Amino acid sequence: MKKSFDGAEFPREEVRAAIAKGIQQAEEQANMRQTPLQMKRKSKRKPLLYVASVAAAFSIMVGSAAYVSPTFASTLSQLPIVGSVFSNYDFLGLKQVSEQGLTSIIGEKHTINGISVTIDEVLYDESNITVGYTIDSEKELSIEYFGAGLKFTINGANPVANSASFGKKVIGPTVQTVIARFDVKDQMPDSFKMGLMLEGKEGEKWEFTVPVKKITNTIYVPVNYQQQAEGIQLDVSKISLSPSGIALDYKATEKGTIDNPQVGASFIEFRITDQNGKEITSHLGGGEGHFDNDVWNFSSIKSFDPISHDVQQLTITPYLALPSGGGGVQGVETKIPFDRSALKEVNFQSFTVDVPKQTK
């Protein structure tokens, strides 16, 4: 009979004992199969046996325990070798939600042409959908092998507009972990079937369908702050606080022409500090814009690191993050060169937001 660990203390010692036993059995079996030459190299091969045996123990536990609680999954991610992809990256929010068992553990793996892609875990919060996945290949792959990277759909349909950012860590010549972060838009549902597709250079297509649901332990703080500066109308509607970080919703408008979307309002970013002047790390993301009645309209949800429980007030300072060069594309083929001289610095006023008391 299956035993559920929901609401009960996780049997840490039993799991560790099972893993230790698996390691011992793997070593004994390996020793029985080794030739004299292999026996001489035993000390060099032992770490590989440890990895294999622990991985086997982990797959047994996961394969027979679809009924376990998020706490159980979180505890597994903290055991040696059995780790979270999110915890390996320099995003405080991702590490925190992973440790708290708030991510969706997927573990679905597809292999094509000797290349295995595993969707490890997913986080859906107010500002991003973050997907952590692992690529394990029989041979070393070039950096550009996967082209533009992971793509996603919502209930089988392409999102109206989205931008994505990617981070990669090379574990070895043939193994790498990747996180893909997709911007969240206002019209996206709180839960849906997320289609994921990764295309390879040789025409491979790794396709997955995973359920995602927005985390619920979020504090919404109405802001409704407005200001005008140098022809830019800025509206900050709210900020959201969760274990994954701060999400700041804003809209900005500015008069312009249809053939040039590179107006000042399209470069707005925010700096946030707490009551002690400590800056909260921001994570630059994309946004969307459209032109209507001689006015450019931009909107985005900016993301920042989570704050500690002793933060009582936040000071928010808008500014323009003007690039030094580059350009953009209007439509399919019309390239728009960036002209910094056509834009000027804007001095926005800072404003403060009181932070509700958070429960630990």
UniProtKB/TrEMBL annotation:
Pfam family, any one: DUF4179
Protein origin, superkingdom: Bacteria
Keywords, in A-Z order: Membrane, Transmembrane, Transmembrane helix
Domain spans labelled DUF4179: 44-137
Segments traversing the membrane: 48-68
Residues annotated as domain DUF5643: 220-340
Membrane as UniProt keyword: yes
Name this polypeptide is given: DUF4179 domain-containing protein
Native organism: Lysinibacillus pakistanensis
